[in-house]
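Listing S7. Sequence submitted for prediction.
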Amino acid sequence: MIWFDYLYLGKKERGLIKKYLQKVTGYSRPQVTRQIREYRETGRVRLKEYKRNKFERKYTNKDIQLLAQTAELHDYPNGAALKKTLERMAKEYGEEEYRNIAAISVSHIYNLRKTVSYQRSVSFYPGTKKTKATAIGERCKPEPEGRPGYLPVCVRTRTGRHAQAEG
């Protein structure tokens, strides 16, 4: 503002300066107007830092490390089994450090497993184990042998042979 002698310029020049400030700063017209008004009143422009509203963390890094250690000791069970283990440690065995983490939901266990502090706490995390997909039914030519009620679906038996399913 001092560079341009804004306070002593005419209306056209002030409008031009406003457009220039909008372009340079990325602020909207009302934001630039507010900044100019503050400059007129106080003689300086002060930018406010954005203050983000954050929720208070329920589970601390200590809780996350405890979760990771428990999962590692029990060979990385699924979320429901791990929740039961945490509850058992707090209630049946009376372990005080498990009190807070015992109230966790199964879905939040999976959220905490994605955090950096959890990943750093475990030496190895296998993730979800994949299984080989097995075909439930395969389409094949029907052999009704003159009887109604057969569907053109073959079912694989344990021996690997195909048998036709009756409908």
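Caption to Listing S7: primary sequence and predicted structure tokens for the chain studied. Helices lie at 11-25, 29-42, 61-73, 79-91, 106-113, 116-121. The longest helix spans residues 11-25.
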